Amino acid sequence: MPRFASIDIGTNSVLLLVAERLPDGRFEAVVERAEITRLGRGVDTSRVLSAEGMEATLSTLVAFADEARALGAQGIAVSATSAARDAKNGADFIAAAKARADVTVEIIPGEMEAQLSFAAVSADFAGEAAGPLLVIDIGGGSTEFIYGSDAGTVAFRHSFDVGAVRLTERFVRTDPPSSDERAAIEAHLRHTFAALPPTPPAAMLVGVAGTVTTLYALQHRMATYDAEQVHGGTLSRGELDALTDMLCTLPLDARRALPGLQPKRADVIPAGALILREAVKALGLDTCRVSDRGLRWGLLVHRFGSAPSSS
User: Fold this and answer.
1) What CATH number does residue 49 fall under?
2) Residue 150: predicted pLDDT
3) What is the CATH number of the domain that holds 123?
4) Which Gene3D superfamilies does the UniProt entry name for this protein (predicted)?
5) How far apart are CA 215 and CA 279, in angstroms?
């Protein structure tokens, strides 16, 4: 079976997917990896990718590209999102990625990021939805919302400049976040999400990316992350309320020790939890399904998918 790879470079993390394209056109994962490199540290205020963030991300990119080639990937698609879009020196990062990892990084606009995430979720969840499918993709620098129509096409998509890293850097100065800092984040999110269209009747919300999967792993106290258990799971509004309250009151060291939470994500997970909770409230929904497959899966199909007859 032919193998292909996609690498998703986000504001907070880098994700690798190497997959085989099956005769029916579907993809089956061979390897999936994730590494938190914080490319977007400080970008919200400086509009510049830091030397530390670039070096950590480039080192991971080289390792992921080498692994993909060693596994026989015939092509590698690489995308960069919010931090690279916002930074003045994004072109420097792209040049360094080409020189060191021999890959071409495409800085994709927020609307395309939303479209690719929706394509990945729709492939797994459209058959379960009684009505339209809604997708929320919470990243480090931005959050994408995508509304699917009853016919399965995209009716609305938008990328908002609210992400777990961006909001933490913008609002949080104490450990744990003070009640005033939390209130400021909540007010900012309510104002931002007021721009969302009304939620269609019988809509199903699906959340993707590290914040959502981490919250599910925390809820179920997963000492070892289990993608199969996470994918397709459900978080209720009550669970999100309790998780958010816990994460916003525990100090950083205590958060780092929680089962299900990567220590490198502990500093930004309170803001991430607030984003998801406020989004669910703004949409007027009671639950959020969880997808372990996001942009990297949509990017793989977009670049390397084909009709079975041409496989």
Assistant:
1) 3.30.420.40
2) 59
3) 3.30.420.150
4) 3.30.420.40, Exopolyphosphatase. Domain 2
5) 14
What are the CA-CA distances from residue 179 to residues 162, 168, 173, 246, 275 (Å)?
19, 14, 11, 13, 16
- What's the token pair of residue 200? 């269609």
| Long-range CB contacts for residues 45-52, cutoff 8 Å, separation at least 24 | 45/169, 45/170, 47/86, 47/87, 47/88, 48/87, 48/88, 48/89, 49/83, 49/84, 49/87, 49/89, 49/90, 49/92, 49/93
Q: What is the identity of the amino acid at 296?
A: R
The reply to whether 37 falls in a domain is yes
What pLDDT score does 85 carry?
Answer: 81
Last residue of a domain, one of 62, 87, 109: 109
DSSP 119-178: HHHHHHHGGG-SS-EEEEEE-SS-EEEEEE-TTSSEEEEEEES--HHHHHHHH--SSS--
Supply the pLDDT for residue 59: 97
pLDDT at 120: 86
Residues 51, 129, single domain; the answer is: no
pLDDT tens digits, one per residue of 229-265: 999 999 999 999 999 999 999 999 999 999 999 999 9
